[in-house]
Fold:
Amino acid sequence: MTMPILDVRDLKVHFPVKAGFIGRTVGHVRAVDGVDLTIQPGETLGLVGESGCGKTTLGRSISRIIKPSTGMIGYRGTDGTVTDLAALRERELRPFQRQIRVVFQDPFSSLNPRMTLRQIVGEPLRANGIATGSELEDRVADMLARVGLSPKYMDRYPHAFSGGERQRVNIARALILGPRLVIADEPVSALDVSVRAQILNLLRDLQEEFSLTFLFVSHDLSVVESVCDRVAVMYLGKIVELAETAELYASPRHPYTEALLSAVPRPDPRLRDVGRRVRLTDDLPDPSNPPAGCYFHTRCPYAVAGVCDVSGQGPVLDGIGPGHHAACLRSDELSLAGVASELA
Amino acid sequence: MTSVLPDADASVTGDPAGGDETGGRRAATQRRLVWWKFRQHKLAMVGLVLIACIYLVALFAEFLAPVSSSTFNSEYTYAPPQQLRIDSDAGLYVHGYTSTVDPETFEPTFEVDKSQKIDVGLFVKGDEYELFGLIPWDRHLIGPEDPDQPMYLLGANRNGYDLLSRMIHGTRVSMTIGLVGVAMALILGIILGGMSGYFAGKTDTVIQRVVEFFMSIPGIPLWMGLSAALPHEWGPMQRYFAITVILAIIGWTDMARVVRGRFLSLRNEEFVTSARLDGSGRPRVIYRHMLPSFTSHLIASVTLSIPAMILAETALSFLGLGLQPPVVSWGVLLQDAQNVRVLATAPWLMIPGLAVVIAVLALNFVGDGLRDAADPYKK
Amino acid sequence: MLRYIGRRCFYMVPTLFAISLVAFAIIQLPPGDFLTAWVTRLESEGEQVDPAMLDGLRQRYGLGEPFYAQYTKWISGILFHGDFGESFEYGRSVSSLVLDRLPWSIGLTVFALLFTWIVAFPIGLYSAVRQYSFGDYLATTIGFLGLAIPNFMLALAMMYVAYSVFGLSTSGISPLTIGIAVVVLGTAGTAGMIRVLRANLLDELKKPYVVAARARGASEKTLVIKYPVRMALNPFVSTIGWVLPGLVGGEVIVAQVLNLPTTGPLLFSALRTQDMYLAGSIILIVSVLTVIGTLLSDILLAWLDPRVRLGYR
Amino acid sequence: MRPVQASDALLEIDGLTTHFFTREGTVRAVDGVSLTVPAGKTVCVVGESGCGKSVTARSVLGLVDEPGRVVAGEIWWRRDGQAPVDLARYGPKSEEMRRVRGGEISMVFQEPMASLSPMYTVGAQLVEAIRLHMPLDREQARERAADLLRRVGIPRPEERLDAYSFQLSGGMCQRVMIAIALAAGPALLIADEPTTALDVTTQARIIDLIHELQAETGMSVLFITHDLGVVAEIADEVVVMYLGTVVERGGVDEIFHDPKHPYTRALLGSIPRMGAGTGQRLATIRGNVPHPSDRPSGCPFHPRCGDAVAGLCDRSDPPDVRVGPGRTARCVLHENADLIGDDGQLGAEEVQR
Structure:
């Protein structure tokens, strides 16, 4: 097995809850609560979960937009040395931020409205002192062409472009430094259906062309299935299941994954009454005060009192098959339904 | 997307494969978009023209005013305004005055005497002055052909000063004290508001408390206290400067709040995060990415706070706590109009107040227009 | 709710402390100590001063001691004995002087505030509901004018009209002068208030919950009165916070012009004669009252808004 | 005017045209939309941003905001047993329209949190809705309110009546909104992207709920969404919109398994299918969705259409062709389908002379 490009160990991001005149800390929102994760070079790892599960925070802490509270983010450089990004100070991060880039969700707020495409896409080159003047221009033009934008629009401002085009600009900006790992945070969820496919295909093409590794954060399970090699499912700041995409979708081993998969509406009316329907209650527990035992037991249809709700005996992410991990106390007893089995 | 207007997410679509038809708008810089939007605001355009005129008056005050600000003729106490008339033979002229002396108080009362004609000319020789403080000259735009004849187009005050001339001279002080005060408030506001917004956390809390403090105390008594405490022996320039400082001390809070609010909201904008991830240093993130995004908002707030400064100066000077004669400002001129009895005999003494109203209105219009135009991407 | 009020009161403490510092600084600002100035003036007027009394006074105010010691003396006198010091000009205690006039000031301010609300509310409402109508433009224009005309100018103009057109007397306390004062003070705040209310209401009227209420068949009147107005009232109430300082300040000037027996003219004359204990105390009292007014408005706001009341904001 | 054709049509929209008169020009947000909602059925209007689906829904109840206006078209509404009335003739502020809103036709919106006023309790708003259309006193209305909350699956309804919207989750708020919509037992529920702002797990439950309620009450549902998955889950009939026009109408199975319009086909091809595995390459539609204010001439889809015929599609508006029983497609490819008959199986190739 190859060495992972990224090795995250017991990563925690806790946001203090402040109150009072001087801002006393009265509690913590455990946005990311002890995550272990590895990403292999060249793969696309999907990160899914409901809103508020901490997937975006995890992505942001790996790119060090947010400083993690504790834990390790081991990044393996091209020369094989591993650096713990979580421990670095802002200045020391610079060289690594060139190799780990981010594509944001919102194609509107992520582009500075006062800068032209040339300035936006060229900014990383300029800021890192890689290229200036005509060289910068050539590289920007080249990059724009690769993401499917005509370089002749280089001097236009973002407001002249549609959502899909702006997302291409974002991708160009992320890739111009020749990164190795790209963290894509819901890169297509703000786009129209007919444009979404273009961007997904583009990401795939660029991955091949530049041999990129992707961490793909999304709430859309069908999109994740189509682009990811492996998928990690998050719930209340923890990873509850991690497996190869096909394996995870076909035979999930965590009740939460089963529920998520079963909730995705399938674009085929003939499948309407096919398969098991698992429905979760609406109420996500308060992440600053998670339930005892398994965090999911309050909503889990398979939860057993006295097993799943015992304080201090929450499940841990265990290997239960080749490359398949799940954090469920009852994963051995349960037989859960996936998607593939229902396909006609 | 909740918006019912079908602009939802695809604001303007630039087809990557061509579509230069509306290239003008698409390639436009933000400054240009703001200007386009501003131009649609008719009142703001009127205001802009007015403001330009007022500052031109301030710039060429010596030339525009018939006499210098210190020229007076104590013979013509409370002389009423004369109407400027035009005649095909004699050209411009005004009527002279006849005076009757009150037998009890010995105070003269003037009336315009239709039988006298005083010739008025353009570009006449008069008091000597230095234009822009550099070019010595003695021509005035308008004035009596004979400098010894009285010409009081807006009347005279108790000492026989020409109100029109003094108002024109006063423009300079009144309109600059606002600018200087705002400039100082702006600097204070940007530094503190910026710190508050960028560093957030404890720094923000402390600065916020200070701002709240300044906003919760009534300004005018404080100004009065501070300006009353100014040493009497200070000269006009020192006083002028001290008053601007006092105005700035009170006025910076609004600026600080605006700047802080913008910084706070921008700090979490993804394009700012992106800039940081691009490797831009902190100063570049602040000055190249954040500041330009709200300069137009800032300019709007600045424009809207100049009038407040002008009003404050006027009020202070009116009470005799602000600028003192011989400095001439609109507020100083209004000191003459303290009392109803005086007003009853010489209502024209309130005219400088009109200048204040017009200037403040115009600035408010411009500020309003700017505020609306500041965000050209918002419908 | 009680916790909110408690917290809000606690926030006030540093503000009040800072105000007292500023007030004391103003007392201290004029060069030399006021006692010397006072003695000089009395002597120039040919009066004799009893040196024993001077010593007593020096002792009492801690003159010659460092700033903080003087401040402590001054503030503890106020806090524990209600002793604001002595006005040399009037030869009376500051507290009795101020007490005589304070009711007038408070009354004037409260009335002006009420005037502001009563006028601003319907106009703002109308402007928002009938956006871009003739009435809206008229209200906006008047609003702009109200912002642009200095308080004292308006007072002067009204006095001039009353005096020279109607031949009415315009000095001292009379229904006319008080009326003028209320209207003048109220107008300045009204202009700003109308703008705030209009802007807020226009924002609120576009909110989804208004559309949702309309979709369930609520009448247009309910739609405006029940939902958005209730929301728009919040900022409206909180505007007391910023209208009040302006009102209090304006009151000083307007009362001066109209020669009303409020604290304003007293402050003014105190400042002119450098009767600094009187001046400082008035600034202190007026500021503290303003802060308390703001506090009341915040509590009212919390009571009106369930989000604040229930601690969701 | 045209009489209502199908006797079972509860709502029939005919040639609805809603324009927004902005300073920059007129935006033809909805441009001649016709659709029918049969009694007891769920009709889904599906399309991407700017296609006019929401504006269509709002036009029915006269809820289009300034500067938008219904400029043409008829909205025939058939109360039970009565002659149909044209809602488009009612003024947006008229008493008649108000009686229809909430009483006969209810609406649920995209943002459940924002659709409830934070200043009043959920119960107050629910009681208001009930009392607007039913002659009940406060006490009775409150009882009914609690009943309604129970029916939409809110546990402990009596307590929840006194909650504020900000104390509830998005899913809960949407349930409350549905309860409000059901207050007076409407014949038609218009749901405007009711699940878009919700998580996928919550979405599934809300869709189930609407499904159940429909089965229970027999009301019709006009469901607006951009998500074809949701359409497949809930629709009986589907209306596909693109840039202010209906491009295709038909039964849900026909639309998904035998799409006629190139846009529908392309749209279906561009969505990833669950279970299809990793690495599936998605079919794409070239270009972007244009803004409704610069709509292409002729067929609005022609610049992105793989089957566009130069000189034809970019010049004239395509005809609305009947391609089967209850099916239409607005495309020149099917121009001759009317003559051929109702089999609806005519492939594009056969028509392309």
